[in-house]
Design goal:
The complex is a heterodimer of chains A (about 375) and B (about 230). By secondary structure, chain A is an alpha+beta fold. Chain A folds into 2 domains: about 230 residues, P-loop containing nucleotide triphosphate hydrolases (Rossmann fold), CATH 3.40.50.300; about 120 residues, OB fold (Dihydrolipoamide Acetyltransferase, E2P) (Beta Barrel). In chain A, about 25% of the residues lie in helices and about 35% in strands. Chain B is mostly helical. Classes of the chains: A alpha+beta (about 375), B mainly alpha (about 230).
Chain lengths: ~375, ~230
């Protein structure tokens, strides 16, 4: 449980953030650069002091201006993984990892964390000799070995190229699933949020613009100006229902419906989060027959948004909310308006591996399945 | 040391003793001053900075005179030291060390301050989030990272202390075996008839000592730099 309600003036910039986050899982802080994400995380970590407000994690009050509480950073027990890693250059990887370790618990954790992050071969190297991805894994291990009650990650992937990002993401999923440590994850990459996060805090100009479960916020048209850099689409949480390996499809269940996607080697019962891009969804007034599209969901138009470029985003409630992107011409031909009965058509092959993220509470190993 | 005359050995030994004592004694103060100037803002900071740098620009004789006034047995500080602890500073080798320390102090502080300003404070912040208090952060992060500067400052101060003449002779005079360091012995020889050859030998010893200090510091600095950059 994270409770934040802080105000801080930094020159012309005013940070004012209040949100609560349920225990466990990953809370993503999302916003463009300059939105105040890092400033907020520094307040949480105690590296900067709010002008007023309150910060509590679980039962521990870290800051409370009214009660006069302001714990020093070293007393807060918050692990901080910085964007640039910040490994100590004059220490070996082993000494970096051990820096925050306390007592016997730390020593017992050491081997486990080293194995979890697969950094055993790096222990005797110096940070200088590590690749960007290796540095971040060591930085994560170092933060974890200080036995934090909460892990703060400030754009841990931002300085890495695509390949390195893909290398680190499964490790972050393992933290969430195997160590069950709550994480506040700062990013401006929606892909990472869809893949990792449970709760989403959207920040804009130093303010919290919206707070809620990722699925809910991603389907809100009014937040599009803030989430817009990411390609529009619906985010759904689904369960693996079964496989038809011979015909190369996997069945995913959500809200009483079945979505067919290309075959993925994922155990039945596994929870996944998937993304259906708006441009991969077509609309029809009647259920088409003799068509290759496998997923046809009857539903009702809830909302239409004019994107001001001639294309329209149409939200269709089929049980869950699905987005479709159509031209104005197509909308006029079908005479679409809120309330219209339509069928949403989703090509199975449009759901690719990049659209899938593993969900909490499973023992599915990310490194064997989805990259 | 059979290749040194007893007089040379005495002057050399005394010089080393004075220089080592001055550097070791002023090291904590130098670190504190560097930290104050690099990391703190307080009213009168410019004045403190100026006072620390004063020995660089004031004639050494003036420094020696001021030390004599303050630390002489009748001076405010010297009198108190003598009455309370029976310690005499003026006209002893301890006074020579004090004079050398004061003269070398600005060089020491300057090098340390520059290296402290170059320390990445984000690394210190990272250490705090890992549970280290301020003192541990300083000992394990700040100090090791500024070590090359501390070393440079120490070597500079050591070399300056070895060569200290004006403040020393003013403050503690020229007492054989007590305050007659290498430069003062050399000066004495130049004032003595037939002293040229002995003076030349002392000059050679001084040059050799300085050279050895520089080579040693270069070697240590390079090793440190390699370690900081994470080479083998």
């Amino acid at each position: 449980m994270i409770e934040v309600d802080v105000r801080r003036r930094l020159g012309d910039f005013a940070l004012q953030a209040a949100f609560n986050s349920p225990p466990g899982g990953i809370t993503a802080l999302f916003g463009r650069s300059g939105a105040g994400k890092t400033a907020l995380v520094n307040l949480l970590a105690g590296l900067d002091r709010p002008d007023e407000g309150r910060i509590a994690v679980d039962d521990a009050v870290l800051f409370d201006s009214e009660a006069g509480i302001d714990l020093a950073p070293e007393m807060r027990r918050l692990g901080y993984v910085f964007q640039e890693g910040r490994l100590f250059p004059h220490m070996s990887v082993r000494r970096n990892l051990a820096y925050g370790m306390k007592g016997k618990d730390g020593a017992a954790n050491f081997d486990r964390i080293v194995e979890l992050l697969d950094i055993g071969a790096l222990l005797d190297r110096t940070p200088h000799a590590l690749s960007g991805g290796e540095k971040q894994r060591v930085a994560i291990g170092r933060a974890l070995l200080a036995s934090p009650r909460l892990l703060l990650m400030d754009e841990p992937l931002a300085s890495l190229d695509m390949g390195r990002k893909a290398e680190i993401l499964p490790f972050i999923e393992r933290l969430r699933d195997e160590l069950a440590i709550p994480i506040v994850y700062v990013t401006h990459a929606m892909e990472e949020i869809v893949r990792l996060a449970d709760m989403l805090v959207i920040m804009s100009d130093g303010k919290v613009a919206a707070v809620g479960p990722v699925e809910d916020l991603m389907s809100r048209l009014d937040l599009r100006p803030l989430t817009g850099r990411y390609e529009a689409g619906a985010v759904l949480t689904v369960t693996v229902d079964g496989h038809d390996a011979r015909r190369a499809v996997t069945r995913l269940a959500f809200d009483g419906m079945t979505l067919l996607v290309p075959y993925f080697d994922i155990p039945v019962g596994e929870e996944l989060r998937i993304r259906i891009r708006a441009r991969d969804v077509s609309l029809a007034l009647t259920a088409p027959t003799d068509i290759s599209i496998l997923n046809i969901f009857p539903g009702r138009v809830v909302e239409i948004s004019d994107r001001k470029d001639g294309q329209m985003d149409v939200i269709v409630d089929v049980g869950a909310r699905i987005w479709a992107r159509v031209t104005r011409l197509a909308m006029d031909r079908l005479a679409l308006q809120p309330g219209s009965e339509v069928h949403a058509l989703v090509k199975a092959v449009a759901i690719d591996r990049q659209s899938l993220g593993r969900r909490t509470g499973s023992n599915f190993r990310g490194d064997k399945g989805i990259p | 040391m059979s290749w040194l005359t007893p007089l040379e050995a005495e002057a050399l030994g005394l010089s080393l003793k004075v220089a080592v004592a001055s550097v070791v004694g002023s090291l904590p103060f130098g670190l504190a001053a560097a930290w104050l100037l690099a990391r703190r803002n307080f009213p009168g900071k410019a004045l403190v900075d100026g006072v620390i740098h004063l020995p660089l620009v004031v004639p050494p004789v003036v420094v020696g005179y001021l030390l004599l006034v303050a630390l002489g047995r009748r001076g405010p500080v010297g009198g108190w030291l003598y009455d309370s602890f029976g310690i005499t500073i003026a006209f002893t080798w301890k006074g020579a060390a004090v004079a050398a320390a004061v003269m070398a102090f600005p060089l020491m502080v300057r090098a340390m301050r520059l290296s402290l300003e170059a320390v990445d404070r984000r690394l210190e912040a990272a250490a705090r989030t890992l549970g280290a208090g301020r003192a541990r952060v300083f000992m394990t992060i700040t100090l090791p990272l500024m070590a090359p500067g501390v070393l440079a400052g120490t070597i500079l101060a050591f070399a300056r202390a070895l060569g200290e003449f004006g403040a020393t002779i003013t403050f503690v005079s020229n007492i054989p075996g007590e305050t007659r360091t290498l430069p003062i012995a050399l000066y004495t020889l130049t004032q003595t008839p037939e002293g040229e050859a002995a003076a030349a030998r002392l000059a050679l010893i001084s040059v050799g000592l300085a050279l050895a200090a520089i080579v040693a510091s270069e070697w240590i600095a390079r090793r440190m730099a390699r370690r900081l950059e994470g080479g083998t």
